[in-house]
Specification:
The protein has a 5-stranded parallel beta sheet, with helices on both faces. The mean pLDDT is 94. The radius of gyration is 19 Å and the shape is globular. The relative contact order is 0.14. It has 246 residues and is α/β, with parallel strands linked by helices. The chain is 38% helix and 11% strand. It has a single domain, classed as Rossmann fold (3-Layer(aba) Sandwich).
Length: 246
């Protein structure tokens, strides 16, 4: 049985930090709560993935979107990579920083470039930096200074392509008192965020929406289906036709 899609979407693309958003305290759960009945939040977090592997996956996601005339529109896209790209060689997850930046630009241009087969000018984009890694907790194939470089690379790409950046790295670092051991306050295992860490991410994304994409704020949207108090009780069906949230 195929279900008709009734709501436009917020699409989250990333690695395990995004995949972990399905947890009760994660970004996806928080966004789903505030955007309920207005936007669907689709989590495409892929644990262990880096940007080399994300590109062909994103191509398939966007191809499916374009193949169906009545597919929901992606109104907001978050791109959250760097934690795995920053893995130290010879890890198969490692992506050299120059190629990492090129990959991020490519992911943005897939949506933003008029020459792209997946061009979607109405899609708003947010880049998210990886958080610091706490190597006192996470001892495998990571270095604090290397992850910092990849966070800076995300900021540089954001400036280059004109996309706002949720600087999670800096906010976690400042919240930790600029002490690597202090990052344990926001990281459950040294690499992945806990509830306090995801709160930082959610707040950072919402601040960008408020400042840059205010039309996407949940308070600016209407519900796709009318509130129960607006249903025409004498002839309900016409009043129950879906509408655009924006």
């Amino acid at each position: 049985m195929a279900l008709a899609c009734t709501q436009d979407v917020i699409l989250l693309l990333g690695d395990s930090l995004t995949q972990g958003n399905v947890e009760r305290t994660g970004l996806a759960e928080r966004l789903s709560c505030v955007y309920v009945r207005k936007m669907d939040v689709i989590n495409r977090g892929l644990s262990g993935y880096q940007t080399d592997w994300a590109i062909p996956v994103f191509e398939q996601i966007l191809a499916q979107q374009h193949a169906h005339r009545h597919a929901p529109k992606v109104q907001l896209l978050t791109l959250w990579f760097g934690a795995n790209d920053a893995a130290l060689p010879p890890s198969t997850q490692h992506v050299p920083i120059a190629r990492f930046k090129s990959n991020l630009v490519h992911l943005v241009h897939m949506v933003r470039s008029p020459t792209s087969a997946y061009y979607s000018p109405g899609t708003r984009i947010v880049l998210i930096t990886p958080p610091p890694v706490n190597t006192y907790q996470w001892t495998r194939e990571r270095a604090f200074e290397e992850t910092e470089k990849y966070a800076e690379a995300v900021r540089e790409v954001g400036g280059q392509v004109g996309v706002p950046v949720a600087d999670v790295w800096t906010q976690v670092w400042e919240g930790a008192g600029r002490d690597e051991r202090g990052c344990a306050r926001f990281l459950q295992d040294g690499l992945h965020l806990n509830a306090a860490g995801y709160e930082i991410v959610f707040d950072a994304v919402m601040k960008i929406i408020e400042a840059t994409y205010p039309e996407m704020h949940y308070d600016a949207l209407q519900t796709v289906f009318v509130p129960w108090s607006e249903v025409n009780v004498d002839d309900p069906r016409p009043s129950l036709v879906k509408r655009r949230a924006m």
